[in-house]
Amino acid sequence: MIPGLFQTPDYARHLLMAHADMAQTPRDTEAAVASRMRRQEVLYAAGKLFRVLVWEGALHALVCPRDVMAGQLDRLVGLIGMSTVEFGIVPLGAPMHLTPKHGFWIFDESRVVVETINTELLFDTADDLDLYQRTWDGLNESAAYGARAHRIIARARHLIAPS
Predict the structure, then answer these.
(1) Which of 48, 69, 117, 131 is the most exposed place for a label (fewest CB within 10 A)?
(2) Does a structural domain hold residue 9?
(3) What is residue 159's predicted lDDT score, i.e. its pLDDT?
(4) Which residue in 52, 140, 159 sits closest to 90, CA to CA?
């Protein structure tokens, strides 16, 4: 899926509602969407750098209506070229030395957060940090950035464009 820091409110709303239904938890959707949007302010903080990879499949997964996904893809285009964001897409069909297993975040080279269906796991040992950094580096070798990433998003946008 598209990472929370990059989600539009409508896209986030659909994901959060689906997750609440699956997990059979109470819906606090609007509060969760508002919180997610507030967290995005960090993308505009001077001195920060977010290096993010997504698999191209996330651009095609219709977890929301087509018009919402179109808006989400437009949002991604707007991230390309930001001084605080390095946004890479691992294209479908790209040669890969390893495959993505699950979502994870490396924070300040001091801890790794692994996302699962029902929880987040925190790792902070040197061995774990090294393993996840090597994994990220391996996936990054296959990633497209800049104009290439823009073309991949445009292709996905064309395929899901509302009728």
Answers:
(1) 117
(2) no
(3) 94
(4) 140
Does the pLDDT at position 127 exceed 80? yes
pLDDT in tens, 57-83: 999 999 999 999 999 999 999 999 999
Listed as own residue / partner, the contacts of 58-63 with beta carbons closer than 8 Å and 24 or more positions apart are 58/1, 58/2, 59/2, 59/89, 59/152, 59/153, 59/156, 60/156, 60/159, 60/160, 61/1, 62/160, 63/1, 63/11, 63/14, 63/15, 63/18
70 within some domain: yes
Q: Does the structure show a pLDDT above 90 at 32? A: yes
Residue 88 falls in which region: left (phi positive, over 0), alpha (psi -120 to 50) or beta = beta
Number of domains in the chain: 1
Tokens 């893809």 locate to: 73
80 in a domain, yes or no?
A: yes
Look up the pTM and report it: 0.92
